[in-house]
Write a structure and sequence with these properties.
The complex is a heterodimer. Chain A is an alpha/beta fold. Helix content of chain A is about 25%, strand content about 30%. The mean pLDDT of chain A is about 95. Chain B is α/β, with parallel strands linked by helices. In chain B, the strands form two sheets. In chain B, strands 9-8-7-10-6-1-4-5-11 form a nine-stranded mixed β-sheet, with helices on both faces. A two-stranded antiparallel ribbon of chain B has the order 2-3. Classes of the chains: A alpha/beta, B alpha/beta. Chains A and B meet through helix 3, helix 4, strand 7, strand 9 and strand 10 of A and helix 3, helix 4, strand 7, strand 8 and strand 9 of B. Strand 18 of chain A pairs parallel with strand 13 of chain B.
């Protein structure tokens, strides 16, 4: 039977919401699912992980060196804990993408990135070419190391009580990498990656000042705010708001693309949105080819009107 | 200080990807190819580090068939001093690539390994991290700012929650993200000069690498298409349509 280890991502004592989705992906493998929490003090996060439905056990690895998630420091520990597991899964976040290959190389196996469907222990679907093609792949013999494309999975519930077990790890940790700081972009709005509604603005907004029409509308409907690469590159909004192939890949219930033409790079980030609404003054904009509902016109008139009427 | 920059030949980012109807893969024959855009950023960064006097020699490296020489010529036009072509006509997966690149790092005694955070064909986002892991050296992925100072580098990384800063000892692997720099436009004299720069050809065997067991692609299909939507004429119609769908 498969034994699946999921490496928990967490920050400030909170388990990342993507772990509940990673568990969902692991369920498709079939087998026993464990979550490993590497932290300075893992107790709080482990408690949250233990609630996730389908998880049999939570392992805690306490070490002051794990206070911040540094891949070079975590990898030898993960590789050691991974012994005895058939699968090691990571969320497909920057945390998982940074760490997983470092672990895979230590285990001398190829890695499967961005798993979007699991069909048993060795068969997976994953996107290539920014989601313009979907491949079905078969993992070779050995430990299966994979990252999970979070937009493709629904989170499991949190009504269980798995056992929590402390594990000690003897791996030597490197000193060549030092964590300096994190400049977190704080926002009062819902998190872009987990929000059920997202409103994004594009180049047509024209300035950072004009983005206020997007914020006002988003706040009215309780949505997260995103942007196209064009808007980010023009300096209207910070990097972490970018939605697309090279930014965040999201799957909200409702997505508004406002003043966004719909470059391939942007569409790659919103393919899994349930309903896409596009507002653009150019009726030929490619965004209308993927939109469920389209409205042609001047966003500076339409969006304030929409804000008033919802 | 030597910098090794790995560059990959991929289907050009402007090409509309077509999946073969027999499910055997993506159409690549007769399609425009170019250097992976993230690798261009890595090349540009290496050249800027040399301009600042931090790097003395830039070696571009690629793995693949004969056509990959074009990509190395592009790297040489960017300003690489010389290039290494690890020639292999088969499909090369990240772990095997990383083993060859790690071997080249050792052979050259390079202090810096630069590559794009991912290639836009397989979107694996693995090779740089694997090189660092195999060599047991530091890694700083998704870099948006790089400062090299003596035998250290301070790297700002674009991560989901914001900008993270790491300090790493050299040798180190740095993988480059979109906002690190804007690659220069290649000028004709540089392209001409690149034709005369040396390219050394080696095999996996020369580097002491045995290709690792690979992930097997069983089939390739186009993504599910979205059904055609509706156009509305007014905000009122839009609000009504959203209400009908139960979204407001």
């Amino acid at each position: 039977m498969s034994k699946i280890l999921i490496v928990a991502e967490h920050a400030e004592g909170k388990l990342n919401a993507g772990i509940a989705k990673t568990v969902s992906a692991a369920k498709g493998v079939g087998g026993e699912i464990h979550i490993a929490v590497f932290a300075a003090d893992a107790a709080g996060v482990a408690g949250q992980a233990a609630k996730l439905d389908g998880v049999a056990k939570v392992l805690t690895i306490n070490n002051a060196a794990n206070a911040n998630p540094v891949a070079a420091i975590l990898a030898p520990q993960v590789a050691e804990v991974a012994k005895g597991y058939s699968h090691v899964f990571f969320p497909g976040t920057t945390f998982g993408k940074d760490l997983a290959p470092r672990v895979a190389a230590k285990l001398d196996v190829q890695q499967i990135s961005d798993v979007m469907a699991t069909h048993g222990p060795t068969s997976f679907e994953r996107p290539i070419y920014a989601g313009n093609a979907i491949t079905t792949v078969e993992a070779p013999a050995g430990t299966v190391v994979a990252t999970v494309r979070l937009a493709s999975f629904q989170p499991v519930g949190a009504s269980s009580t798995a056992a929590v077990e402390a594990v000690s790890v003897s791996a030597a940790l490197p000193s060549h990498t030092r964590y300096v700081k994190l400049e977190a972009q704080k926002s009062e709005r819902p998190d872009l990656q987990s929000a059920s509604r997202v409103v994004s603005g594009g180049r047509a907004l024209g300035s950072s000042e004009n983005f206020k029409v997007i914020y006002a509308f988003a706040d009215k409907i309780g949505a997260g705010v995103g942007a196209s690469r064009a808007a980010v590159d023009s300096g209207y909004v910070p990097n972490d708001m970018q939605v697309g192939q090279t930014g965040k890949i999201i799957a909200p219930e409702l997505y508004f693309a406002i003043g966004i033409s719909g470059a391939i790079q942007h569409l790659a980030g919103i393919k899994d949105a349930r309903t896409i609404v596009a507002i653009n003054k150019d009726p030929e904009a490619p965004i209308f080819e993927v939109a469920d509902i389209g409205l042609v016109g001047d966003l500076f008139q339409l969006v304030p009107e929409l804000t008033q009427k919802v | 200080m030597k910098a090794l920059v790995s560059v990959k030949r991929v289907v050009d980012y402007n090409v509309r990807i077509q999946v073969k109807s027999d499910g055997s893969g993506v159409v690549t024959d007769g399609v425009k190819h170019s250097m992976n855009p993230f690798d261009e950023i890595a090349m540009e960064e290496a050249v800027r580090l040399r301009e600042k006097g931090k790097v003395t020699e830039i070696i571009a490296i690629t793995i693949g068939g004969a056509k990959n020489e074009e990509t190395l010529r592009t790297a040489l036009a960017f300003g690489a001093d010389r290039a290494i072509h690890v020639k292999d006509e088969g499909e090369v997966q990240p772990l095997t690539a990383a083993k060859a690149l790690a071997a080249a790092m050792k052979k050259e005694g390079a202090q810096l390994f630069l590559c794009g955070k991912q290639a836009i064909d397989d979107d694996a986002n693995q090779t740089g991290q694997m090189v660092a892991s195999l060599l047991d050296i530091a890694q700083a992925t998704f870099a948006s700012k790089v400062e090299v100072d003596g035998n250290k580098a301070v790297v700002t990384r674009e991560i989901d929650s914001g900008l993270e800063t790491l300090e790493v000892d050299l040798p180190a692997v740095i993988t480059t993200d979109l906002r690190l720099n804007e690659p220069r436009y290649l000028k004709l004299p540089d392209i001409m000069k690149a034709k005369k720069k040396p390219i050394e050809t080696v095999s996996f065997g020369d580097l002491g690498v045995t290709p690792a067991a690979g992930v097997k692609t069983v089939k390739t299909v186009p993504p599910p298409s979205r059904s055609k939507g509706v156009m509305v004429k007014t905000v009122d119609e839009l609000v009504a349509a959203l209400k009908t769908k139960g979204l407001l």
